[in-house]
Design brief:
The structure is a single chain. The protein has 374 residues and is α/β, with parallel strands linked by helices. Helices cover 41% and strands 18% of the residues. The strands form three sheets. Strands 1-14-2-3-4-5 form a six-stranded mixed β-sheet. It has a six-stranded mixed β-sheet with strand order 6-7-8-9-13-12, with no helix packed on it. Strands 10-11 form a two-stranded antiparallel sheet.
Length: 374
């Protein structure tokens, strides 16, 4: 009788525990969720979205390395509990598998954003009609290559450029962001050699970006065929009209007041029949030129945010322009504006090249004569 009573009590205990694994699982998920939320709010509070690249790097390491490793540990704990509590085994195994699945997904996401999307170069094609040109011009806008060193990826960029056969190339800065042991001295000659291989018939022009201050010390004749326009202009006879370029300095591109002063001086020196292109590294200057007689504005710098969440967009653009201006081609008043999301990725504070929902890109803008009004 005593043995039967003990057996019955054990069975009751087992059955009573058998209904609780899902409650245990829900509680553990809530604890993990709150922990992840608090950690990320701390990164935001420390300035991650300003952006503070140290905090961005910490958030990357936590969410895509520390967190999946922690979840693997939690999965192991639940698997061990399943082996110990036979009455809860099935439920605990499912919880362990859930944590393991999330951990694997996060590690897969880490691999994708670090190794795949940053090298998935997209070429956008845009057609812009103008009455100022009588022959089509293929203009390639590229920005923010930011190579840590010249690799097969950078070679592929220029192979694609050659295949597009542009007449004119405009680069809005940030050529290199070297990662030791590479140096500017070791990598820039390699990049310049790639630029020379393309050699479009109307030239390759650029402005200074944030990441290549060493470029300021190189003489213009040593940069050929690359022509850097920093607070300078160039007039190009296309054979079917005149393109008038003006390149902003890095500071002017980020300071709307300074940009307005130099742009007004430039416009006074150009003809109304010229196709006017204004380009600078950052797009902030565009906020003050929406009512000026400029045909096309170009910029980079924002990288399109690099990380763009579904239904929200870019987390960080490091610019005063509206978030929807952070990448792409649009009309902003009189001028059209193209902001490149960049052919490379930011490497500040040791960040790996990472992108999510924002692949690297360059844009081929076809300037075509406006059709006659019938």
């Amino acid at each position: 009788m005593k043995e039967l009573l003990e057996l019955g009590m054990t069975d009751i205990g087992t059955r009573s525990r058998g209904g609780r694994p899902w409650l245990l699982g829900v509680c553990s998920v809530l604890v993990v969720f709150c922990y992840v939320l608090i950690r990320n709010l701390l990164y935001v509070n420390a300035g991650m979205l300003r952006p503070n690249f140290t905090e961005i790097h910490k958030a990357y390491d936590f969410n895509l390395w520390e967190l999946p490793m922690t979840l693997f540990g939690v999965a192991v704990i639940f698997a061990m509990l399943a082996a110990t509590w036979r009455g809860l085994r099935k439920g605990l195994i499912w919880i362990a598998l859930l944590y393991a699945f999330i951990a694997v997904d996060l590690l897969g996401l880490r691999y994708y954003v670090t190794n795949l999307e940053p090298q998935r170069l997209v070429v956008h094609h845009v057609r812009l009609e103008t009455p100022k040109l009588t022959q089509p011009i293929r203009l390639l806008h590229i920005s923010d290559i930011q190579a840590g060193h010249i690799s097969d990826y950078e070679v592929e960029i220029f192979e694609q450029i050659k295949a597009l056969s542009p007449d004119l190339i405009l680069n809005t800065g940030d050529f290199l962001q070297v990662v030791p042991p590479a140096t500017f001295a070791s990598e820039f000659p390699k990049l310049l050699a790639l630029i020379k291989e393309v050699n479009p018939r109307l030239g390759t022009y650029a402005v200074y970006g944030d990441t290549e201050r060493e470029l300021y010390r190189i003489r213009a004749d040593q940069l050929a065929p690359l022509q850097v326009l920093s607070s300078r202009s160039a007039q190009i006879d296309t054979g079917g009209g005149t393109i008038n370029l003006h390149g902003l300095s890095l500071y002017q591109s980020k300071n709307q007041l300074w940009a307005t002063r130099t742009v007004e001086q430039w416009l006074n020196q150009t003809k109304s029949g010229d196709f006017r292109i204004l380009f600078g590294h950052a797009p902030d200057y565009a906020l003050k030129v929406v009512d000026l007689p400029i045909d096309l504005c170009l910029a980079g710098h924002t990288h399109g945010g690099q990380v763009r969440l579904p239904w929200y967009g870019a987390l960080v653009i490091d610019s005063e322009v509206p978030k929807e201006w952070a990448r792409g081609f649009r009309r902003i008043g009189i001028p059209y504006l193209n902001v490149s999301a960049g052919a490379g990725s930011n490497r500040f504070e040791g960040l790996p090249p990472l992108r999510f929902n924002c692949p690297t890109e360059m844009t081929l803008i076809e300037l075509v004569p406006m059709r006659s009004i019938r």
